[in-house]
Amino acid sequence: MRRTRRSSPRLRIAPVLGLLAALLLPLCITFAPGATAAPAAADPVRVMPLGDSITGSPGCWRAVLWNRLLNSGYTDIDFVGTLPPQGCGQAHDGDNEGHGGELVTNVADQNLLPGRLAATRPDIVVMHFGTNDVWSSIAPDRILAAYTKLVTQMRASNPDMRILVAQLIPMNPASCAACAQRVVDFNARIPDWARATSTERSSITVVDQWTGFSTATDTYDGVHPNASGDDKIAARWYPALTSLLDGDAPSDPGDPGDPGGGRPSCSASFRAPSVWQGGYQGEVTVTNTSASSVTGWTVTVVAADGARLTQIWGGTLTTAADGTATVTNASWNGTLAPGANATFGFIASTPATAGTPSATVSCTARAASS
Question: Where is the stretch described as Disordered (predicted)?
C-alpha cells in the first residue's frame, strides 16, 4: 500500500511525456500508438477524530490508533482536523477536531462544525462527544438532537460519510457524584438513535467504549484517560475503523449513483456474573447495531490482569500467545436481526493478585454472501 501523504501536488505526467517526445523524435524514437499515462493514484481516506478534550487534549489514543493502523498495513489514511497534535511521545498524524471543554450541544447550536468540515473534507468521522454535556446535566434528548444535527451537517459535506459514534467512556469525577449514572443512562440511548439515523448510504456504527473501561485504573482524574485508557480506547476504535477501511474507498460525494454503506455492525458488552479466588465466569452480549441483518460475528476479548479464557459456551474460541481471545459465533446464534443480540459465556483463570474482573471486548459482524 502507498505511504500516507499529506496534500502534495499530483505528478503531472502528460507534460513530462510531451517533453520526452520532443527530445526523442530527433533520435527516431517514438511512443507506441495508444500508449497512455498511468492513472493518478487515489487520495488517502481522510479520518476526522471529533470530540472534546478526551479526543484532543492531548487525546493520545489517536497516536496509539494511528500507529496500530500503520503497523497493520493501513498506510493509505490521513487523520484530519483543524487542530494540531499536542505531543503524546510518539510520532503520529496528530490532526484532530477535539476541542477541550466543548459541548456537543454548543457545537450544534452555534453551527461550528460546517466550517471545520469544509476545511478538512473527511470521509470518516470518529466521534466521542458529549462528556461535557453529560457533566452539565443536559438531557439525553437534547444531546441526541445535537448528534442528529451534526450528522446532517456531515452528510451535507459528504453524502457518503461513514460515522463511528462512541458510547462514552465512564466518568466519575470527585466533583460530580451523579455523572457515573448519567453516562450509563445516556449510553443506553445511543444504539436506538443510531439505528434510526443510519442510512444505507451514510452508515452510523456504534462503538462501545464504556464496557471494560475503569475510571479507577484507566483515567488519571475520573474523566480523562491515562496510558492504559488510551490503549483501551484505541483497541475499541480499531476493528470498527478497519471494517470501514476494508470495505470500499469512500465514493465521490458528487456521484449519487454510488452504492451506499449499509454494512452490518455489532457491539459487544462484558460482565462477570460470578467471581471466585483464581477465576471468574464471564459473559459477553453481542448486539446487531446496524440496519441490516448479521449472519455471523467475531468478538475479540482482551481480559485484564493476566486472565485467560479456559472454557467457552455459545461460540468457538481461539487464543493467541499473548492471551487475546477470539470468539466466533456458534451455528445457532450467528444470525441477528437489527437490534437483536446473542450471548456467549466463558470461564477465565486469573492470577492470585488479579482485581475486579474486566475485559476489553470488540465486535466485527458479517453479512450474508450475495
Answer: 245-268
